[in-house]
Amino acid sequence: MMMQVPLTVGSILEHAEKFFPKKEVISQTHDKLHRVNYGEIGQRTRRLMSVLHELGIQNGDRVGTLAWNHHRHLEIYFAAPGMGAVLHTINIRLSPEHIIYIINHAEDKVLFIDEDILPLIEKIKDHLTTVEAFVVMTDKAELPESNLTPLYSYEEILTTGDPTYEFISDIDENEPAGMCYTSATTGNPKGVVYSHRGIVLHSYALGLADTAAISESDVSMPVVPQFHVNAWGTPFACTWFGTTQVMPGPRFTPKRLAEFIEKYKVTITAGVPTIWLGLLREIEQGDYDMSSLRAVLCGGSAAPLGLIKAFEEKHKIPFYHAYGATETTPLVTLSRLKSYQQDLSAEEKLKERARQGILVPGLEMKVVGDNGEIEWNGKDMGELLLRGPWIASEYYKDERTEQAFVDGWFHTGDVVTVDEEGTIQIVDRTKDLIKSGGEWISSVEIENAIMTHEAIFEASVVAIPDEEWQERPIACVVLHEEFKDKVNKEDILEFLRPQFAKWWLPDDVLFMEEIPKTSVGKFLKRQLREQVKAHYSLQD
Amino acid sequence: MMMQVPLTVGSILEHAEKFFPKKEVISQTHDKLHRVNYGEIGQRTRRLMSVLHELGIQNGDRVGTLAWNHHRHLEIYFAAPGMGAVLHTINIRLSPEHIIYIINHAEDKVLFIDEDILPLIEKIKDHLTTVEAFVVMTDKAELPESNLTPLYSYEEILTTGDPTYEFISDIDENEPAGMCYTSATTGNPKGVVYSHRGIVLHSYALGLADTAAISESDVSMPVVPQFHVNAWGTPFACTWFGTTQVMPGPRFTPKRLAEFIEKYKVTITAGVPTIWLGLLREIEQGDYDMSSLRAVLCGGSAAPLGLIKAFEEKHKIPFYHAYGATETTPLVTLSRLKSYQQDLSAEEKLKERARQGILVPGLEMKVVGDNGEIEWNGKDMGELLLRGPWIASEYYKDERTEQAFVDGWFHTGDVVTVDEEGTIQIVDRTKDLIKSGGEWISSVEIENAIMTHEAIFEASVVAIPDEEWQERPIACVVLHEEFKDKVNKEDILEFLRPQFAKWWLPDDVLFMEEIPKTSVGKFLKRQLREQVKAHYSLQD
């Protein structure tokens, strides 16, 4: 038989230490730009593991991080699971109440904190019930003044560590390696626990020629935060494959992203549509060389067709639509044309590329509508159900588990169509679908159509209760500055009319200054729906 | 936590059925060329699973194949493990005695046999102790005359099968999925058992951008036989990723290979150096368009530098040196330049490419010499030890296990150097190293040097006992036809002198008509050594 060797996160960095010691991570922190290679990162991570050991961290204990994307954060990515503990990345954009909740709920024992995030933790420190030590990740020689105690300096504590400390190897690969909380529509965030096995298999998936094809020859810049589903797992995969990584650090701007892409010849980058809208504006104003980019990965929410078109056709930057969630480690689908689809017209290709793509090898999917599994005809809608070794089986100690994990499948809450090629398109969230006269209307499809109008900066469509039809769609739109007061409701409806059945057209178009969003840039439809109902003085 | 979903071979074909149903396998059998797509292969495989079930095959039972590379063989690749049985591919080039041994030792219950191999089995049938049924894979409507009983026709029996039969999913991924016997230097062949887990992880490894990068857009032609380490696992990986496969069928010639590459625009192909020497001669004589080829994978034994040079420089065909063994599923290393090695001179690049490459992600290696682990300096020699989920932990029911599997590591018996980049070079087999005056001489390095001489067709270097030095090298060479009688011993030694220390030079050069080889084209050094000793009338 074959050897029983567990898949472990530590083995990823060990591989990089041995085969790519000279390859670098270029990392922007508050005070300076760092260049550290995988040989050094290996040594520093080993020191950090021994420090965690000295701090009393034991197998299965949670190590929290409140940090931007940088090399120190990367080191904790490997040190925590590498010595048997669990990396808990905390979304710094959550409310203080939610941050208190998840630190206590995860029972974090140590917190690693970026200097600019210290004040946030100082304010809530009295509410933290399990934290025994704080480590500030600073470039400065001296510790900042703080009421946190005990407080250590990352670099100083590292000097006390053992650079020969060994990665744990005799563990069950199904043991926890990481965790991340995802915001819920109502109530507290829900925790997802990542296993060693899941992270390693997911890293393979990211390296496949037909997915992200992450390679030693790449220069990867994760824009998606390391506190958000492990920056989509790219830091793990990139380290394994010896890829140069460029970490944009704290509070980056579109300008810094564009400059880093040009300066470090970034080949692959990953983020949400909002980021790419910002970058697009930046590169259209400035004079940047973006020619090194071979792949912009876009996920988190559906990218408007216009955005994809601008990247691909105008700027010749390959743009890949992907789909995933905190519960899915996250890569589930990625949009790439099959070889025989290269013969399609430019327009058809773009349409296909705007879909979310096909399932990556290693997962299973099922799409279930009102009458069981739907047909793969590109029209029928159903909820996407997922199964596989990097799909969560539960929320961590949370009774909401039973709503989302049923009969061995994760119920994503996303409504999709699937075409004959097996390509999915996210049509809506189950809860955002509009039920009008017994039929379903996809709020997302109307949004996407509206967003192709030149005057529109962003748009969101929500349902309001309707006596006759049960629900009816209302469009909420934000105009580009130069179109303010120059476009009216009828213009928008006129624009939509040729594209949809009459009963799909919104009953009204509301012009707004801003659409409310979550901390990761997704439309906060629940809040928008309340605003719209208030506008019409409606009640549930 | 994450879901507990096993990695199974069946799920590979299920993925292809769903996402690549239209992609084809082009398959040459005795009588005709077949084109079957993955949708059809899925249905046929399901029928075959139900047929195996009807034949009484149960979980863990072995299903033997004696067949060339074609679509039916591919279907059994999935049907046997897909229904819980074990695919046992039998090397048809072994002696009848060894074939009897391994069929009985594996306890095969059914044999799937190509029509032209029937006579071989008819001759040995009375020695087979466990086989209960024979299936002949023929295109003809009628069964051939045969003394095998019961004998079924593959296509006929398939019509009785159930096209909706389900792949087994509730199994332990560490259960056996396949097995293959490797010839031993002495005694009977040794069996290696492949697990579902190992095959799936190995398939991921083959799809990585930095290894074989197998993609949906590829057209893959496995020349390495399906009876030899699962054609290096490419049929599994290619099916998973939706790759078009071109199966060259029985008794192919270099001409057929060249024609298939041109006709079907083959992009990737895999085989041993002997095959590529043959193809090289063919394309240098004929007028073929080889421009579709993006990768020729070469393994099994070290490729001469001249061969690599001819493919890469003369014909502009990228040539990848790889290393593996029956015990390793087989991919262990693959030679690709790192990004920063692109700056090397053409000569240095070629030299680097001629090494066997770096370890693929997911495995561990250790190189042990007389004084423990060697330094990675490109000079020190040691035996390559391997560990990982697709490395065997034993030989199947064989006491020779304890020689090769020690302390959790597979001792490959291959002597290598490792350079600063972690790139290995196979220097010799431990048993073929020449120990002269307390130092080691690599027979392989001298062979490689001799083979770059224009007059040499092939060369092998072996040791003879020596009273003063313990052992001394003797070179055995075969000249190209046009150089016969035009090159002598002194010419060869003169050619070698600038390249080696004086004491490395062979004591003699013997001119031969042929060097004895194994059934898979490797030099049979043991036999050669006997011939050489007989030549000098020496005894051990």
TrEMBL record, chains A, B:
<keyword id="KW-0443">Lipid metabolism</keyword>
<feature type="domain" description="AMP-binding enzyme C-terminal">
    <location>
        <begin position="445"/>
        <end position="522"/>
    </location>
</feature>
<dbReference type="Pfam" id="PF00501">
    <property type="entry name" value="AMP-binding"/>
</dbReference>
<dbReference type="InterPro" id="IPR045851">
    <property type="entry name" value="AMP-bd_C_sf"/>
</dbReference>
<dbReference type="InterPro" id="IPR042099">
    <property type="entry name" value="ANL_N_sf"/>
</dbReference>
<dbReference type="InterPro" id="IPR000873">
    <property type="entry name" value="AMP-dep_synth/lig_dom"/>
</dbReference>
<feature type="domain" description="AMP-dependent synthetase/ligase">
    <location>
        <begin position="15"/>
        <end position="396"/>
    </location>
</feature>
<comment type="similarity">
    <text>Belongs to the ATP-dependent AMP-binding enzyme family.</text>
</comment>
<keyword id="KW-0436">Ligase</keyword>
<dbReference type="Pfam" id="PF13193">
    <property type="entry name" value="AMP-binding_C"/>
</dbReference>
<protein>
    <submittedName>
        <fullName>Long-chain-fatty-acid--CoA ligase</fullName>
    </submittedName>
</protein>
<keyword id="KW-0276">Fatty acid metabolism</keyword>
<dbReference type="InterPro" id="IPR025110">
    <property type="entry name" value="AMP-bd_C"/>
</dbReference>
<dbReference type="GO" id="GO:0006631">
    <property type="term" value="P:fatty acid metabolic process"/>
</dbReference>
<dbReference type="GO" id="GO:0016874">
    <property type="term" value="F:ligase activity"/>
</dbReference>
